[in-house]
Write a structure and sequence with these properties.
CATH superfamily of the largest domain: Translation initiation factor eif-2b, domain 2
Helix content: 25-40%
Number of domains: 2
Largest sheet: 7 strands, mixed
Order of helices and strands: EEEHHHHHEHEHEHEEEHEEHEEEEEH
Structural class: alpha/beta
CATH architecture of the largest domain: 3-Layer(aba) Sandwich
Low-confidence stretches: 1-7
Shape: globular
Radius of gyration: 20 Å
């Protein structure tokens, strides 16, 4: 176990011959790292959510090319075997576009050797970290201008979008951290985020480390909390954003957006441009990952639903762009619901 502050956390670190990943399935009870030196290990870590969050799995995928290259050298793979291994990493989770984007960016360097692959993967991480800090500033500035608060803000967030989900600092949680650094956060409502509790296990853990006042609430409480006037804005991340602004994020997000629209408060998506998929015209074309039904029919290995019940377990839902008040990227802010579409502005 390591004693690290949230700002210094690195969910994905290259060790010289492999990856060190924070095991996010062990939090908040333990801060453990696992060593990954083979493609099977990395794919398993991505599927099991040992590493999760679109930018973080993008970084893992970038370094995964190096893991495949080293394993191929040890085991005498052919070029076709190497390409197949890289493709397995790329396809480990289908909804978050960052994984494919980062693997595709780094894979062409495999022919130039390990040093070239690592240089490009390192660049992916540096750029994501800078993007997170830029997003934090842009998002905070926009929100303060939009709301002109005379007191600290009450913010709702869904799932985990902090250092654990990125190369460091965070996307939506990065905006919250920036607001907190300015003394402008009264309270964060962190949705617990079913079925694996990324909000209560991970977001609350990061908020606690940073000393940011917060409460954890059930996902089903979010809409009522918003409609009672207890929230000034909701800030969430994204796993894929279509050209028209439709946004795939952790399941339960669309309910938050609908409640914000009814209450007339900002619903903000914070994500790097690597999450914007201009080749996808609308959210209808976004593939929604379906996860094992056991995740919602059991808890801690104990069956919680009748033996005859089946599970419906989509990992994500799609929020229409018409409900996205603002999309914050490292390039600035687009007011999507007002007609500033990613497909028009980010090409």
């Amino acid at each position: 176990m390591t004693d690290e502050t949230s700002q210094d956390l690195r969910a994905v670190e290259w060790t010289g011959d492999g990856l060190s990943l924070i095991d996010q399935t062990a939090l908040p009870a333990r801060l453990d790292r696992i060593a990954v030196r083979e493609v099977d290990q990395l794919v398993d870590a991505i599927v099991r959510l040992v590493v999760r969050g679109a930018p973080a799995i993008g970084a893992a995928g970038a370094y995964g090319v190096a893991i495949a290259l080293l394993q191929g050298e040890r085991e005498g793979w052919t070029r076709d075997q190497l390409l197949a291994a890289i493709a397995r990493i790329r396809e480990a989770r289908p909804t978050a576009v960052n994984l494919a984007v980062c693997v595709d960016r780094v894979a062409p360097f495999a022919g130039q050797g390990l040093a070239a692959v690592l240089a490009e993967a390192d660049a992916v991480v540096r750029e994501d970290l800078k993007a997170n800090h830029d997003m934090g500033a842009y998002g905070a500035d926009w929100l303060l201008k939009r709301t002109a608060p005379d007191r600290p803000l009450r913010i709702l967030t869904h799932c985990n979008t902090g250092a654990l989900a990125t190369a460091g600092w965070g996307t939506a949680l990065g905006v919250i951290r920036e607001l907190h650094s300015r003394g402008l956060v009264e309270l964060v409502h962190a949705d617990e985020t079913r079925p694996l509790l990324q909000g209560s296990r991970l977001t609350a853990w990061e908020l606690d480390h940073d000393g940011i006042p917060h409460v954890v609430q059930a996902d089903g409480a979010a809409a009522g909390t918003i409609l009672r006037g207890e929230i000034d804005a909701a800030i969430v991340g994204a796993d894929r954003i279509a050209a028209n602004g439709d946004t795939a994020n952790k399941v339960g997000t669309v309910g938050v957006a609908l409640a914000c629209a009814h209450a007339g408060i900002p619903f903000i998506v914070a994500a790097p441009t690597t999450t914007v998929d201009l080749a996808t015209a609308t959210g209808d074309a976004i593939h929604i990952e379906m996860r094992d039904e056991a995740e919602i029919l059991n808890w801690s290995g104990v069956r919680t639903a009748p033996a005859g019940s089946r599970g419906h377990n989509p990992a994500f839902d799609v929020t229409p762009g018409t409900l996205v008040t603002a999309l914050v990227t490292e390039r600035g802010v687009l007011e999507v619901s007002a007609g500033e579409l990613p497909g028009d502005r980010l090409r």
